[in-house]
Amino acid sequence: MNNVKTSFSIRDMENLSGIKAHTIRIWEKRYNLFSPERTDTNIRTYNLESLQKLLNVTLLYKNGYKISKIAKLGDEKIPSLVNEIVTSKSEKSGAINSFKLAMLNFDQSLFLNTYNELMVEKSFTQIFNDIFIPLLNELGMLWQTNTISPAHEHFISNLIKQKIYIHTEQIQFNAPTKKDEIYVLFLPENEIHELGLLYINYQLALHGHKTIYLGQTMPIESLGDLLKYYSNIRFVSYFTVSPTKADLDDYFEKFEVLLKRSTSCKLWVLGHQIQEISEDKPGGPIKIFKTIDQLIETL
Question: Does 176-297 carry CATH code 3.40.50.280?
Answer without folding.
Answer: yes
